[in-house]
Specification:
Three copies of one chain form a homotrimer. With about 280 residues, chain A is an alpha/beta fold. In chain A, about 50% of the residues lie in helices and about 15% in strands.
Amino acid sequence: MLRNIANSYRISQRLASNAAASGSNNAKDYLLVKESDGVREITLNHPKTLNSLSLEMMSALHEAMLKNVNNINLRCVVLAANGKVWSAGHNLKELQANPEIKKDVFQKLTDIILDIRKLPVPVIAKVNGFAAAAGCQLAASCDIVVCTMSSKFSTPGAGVGIFCSTPGVAISRVMPRPKSAYMLMTGLPISGVDAYVAGLATKVVPEDELDKEIDEITQSIRIKSRAVISFGKKFYYEQLNMPVEEAYLQAGAKMCDNLEMTDCREGITSFIEKRKPTWKHED
Amino acid sequence: MLRNIANSYRISQRLASNAAASGSNNAKDYLLVKESDGVREITLNHPKTLNSLSLEMMSALHEAMLKNVNNINLRCVVLAANGKVWSAGHNLKELQANPEIKKDVFQKLTDIILDIRKLPVPVIAKVNGFAAAAGCQLAASCDIVVCTMSSKFSTPGAGVGIFCSTPGVAISRVMPRPKSAYMLMTGLPISGVDAYVAGLATKVVPEDELDKEIDEITQSIRIKSRAVISFGKKFYYEQLNMPVEEAYLQAGAKMCDNLEMTDCREGITSFIEKRKPTWKHED
Amino acid sequence: MLRNIANSYRISQRLASNAAASGSNNAKDYLLVKESDGVREITLNHPKTLNSLSLEMMSALHEAMLKNVNNINLRCVVLAANGKVWSAGHNLKELQANPEIKKDVFQKLTDIILDIRKLPVPVIAKVNGFAAAAGCQLAASCDIVVCTMSSKFSTPGAGVGIFCSTPGVAISRVMPRPKSAYMLMTGLPISGVDAYVAGLATKVVPEDELDKEIDEITQSIRIKSRAVISFGKKFYYEQLNMPVEEAYLQAGAKMCDNLEMTDCREGITSFIEKRKPTWKHED
């Protein structure tokens, strides 16, 4: 595996050099993006580099995530990947060749991850493959994470001398300590089922049910008011670090504010009138 | 399902109006309460409103929980429900009809939940059915949660325009983030087994073993000193939000204080003397 | 069970008295310690006292853990136990006979547990038996916890009048609240599989696969740079209590520092050069 990753890093580096030489930084070299019925599916599409999170890949991803994010027609984002490796993490060769960019590399993924939380729509990781190191961090940082039985997750950085400290921030917040410490200290992968039991994955499904599962999730989000989801998501993340008493104090006030929203009035009225709501999707 | 809930809300609203008109606020309209051998079982008993947490239901529940709570004969509280819906959460029609009470509605459940933590005896949720929205919040806020295989849990508020922000405080503190975010953003239910894996439920059992499981739990609590359980429960909740070093510092002091308690001296002495302890149950 | 524990406490107390009388405090009375290929295996070896954590046992354990800890040949510690009881927790009779030592008893285990976090190498609990009270606390406090299917974990102190407040600090940080509260308030044991699902155990394996599982873990650690593991472990515990934004800010800086380490340069270079790394293991 490591050998394969090494090979791919070499290829990646060559491609990255070429890209730098030609001045290209084109999303379509790295991603496939399609949007329909309010669902934006962003697919990491650089299997030859094992979808490694080079600066260019991350820039393309960040841009694709944030594009027209205030358009009310956008209701959720699905983050998928082509190839057997969902993402192998940062591009080590890029880091070695250009050590001066290291700070930018880690900051870029932090920006993406904190923006996933800030995005006004839910972000769903659709994992069917191997998510390693920063790739595992990225998957674990989506709001919802669905993976297949054959998926694997690992944080193997220590094996090449760089402990997965940034991925550790992500996985230690969704998994019990004895499980995230195991991943970080041994570098050994866990299965999709283990990830579901541990909490990293919301759901684990057979490969042939993955699309259906994602459809059910996106459909359930699409039929709701974007304004309400956005309002709720923002407070959800705010309250996570509060003591429970403070969280309830603020949550009670949020519920009252929520009741004043146009789409909430419509939602409750339509519910009582036994009809489908007509959302405005605006604050 | 939503249609059924809508129907029941209408019924609930009518009953609530009637109750308000007659000035009645009688626990027996909403609850069954029985107490024997130190176990107080409070059963939500308003299946026609899907045990919705109207202000009157919550007042009755709060009162039933707190009644004679300092009597040393009370050793634990079991919170159960009649009907297929354990509780459907707050009464939306009540909220719409009387918007001025909204603050009171959310505050009331917060009071109940924070009082569950403060109660000097353990509170056990016995769930055999559907716990939704504030009903899910209430179940998740008990000290111990036992559910059946066929039980379901959901936070579907966003579907009618009101994001389950207060239930989110409860479920995000007992489940990994990717699982609670899924429940809140999609509104989709999870099964009893999923709830057990996620951490919301302490145990999941077949329906015909639920009573036996609850009996084992209440029996194990009844044979202990109420004073010791109360002392331990209080500190347990205090230390949850502390950094581990501070928690151990205070826990060590608590262990020393515990050793000075009359029932602790009796417990250790009886243990060494190979006889059953005779508890005083008082501080 | 309690009867058996009572018996063993009596035996333990007699042995402890003898030890005190003779002035002996010899690790080999309590532990077996062997070290090979960088793995130090410390085995609690006082089955007659159910490996109870008397002051002498804890002193021996603490000493064995810390011995030559800065020697770069030490790569990880495995904490095992002989007998059907991994450890029954503190020695109640010791506490009763010498109440003046109570503060020292709880402080000693806190010191051990906080030192497990500070140890520059991973500590792996290898559990094949019953880990109760402070024994459960000790197991849950190792970086990685592997148990067998037939293992059990409990915090039964309240049954003899002393609530497991210090064990509660440990288990409430690796398990969801409704599960740790259940253990503390009922004293009932959970199985190895329950412990795996709850998060207390990293892995649960059949008894005849325990050695192989531990070997795989220690082998994966041994082939890495001790300096890198130590660096990563230190920050891992530091970031656990930080808000996510602060954790990422500091983690990004740590990644940059990590890249400057000698063993990291070697790791990445060897990776790119398709050869095995030659670690220095020093900061």
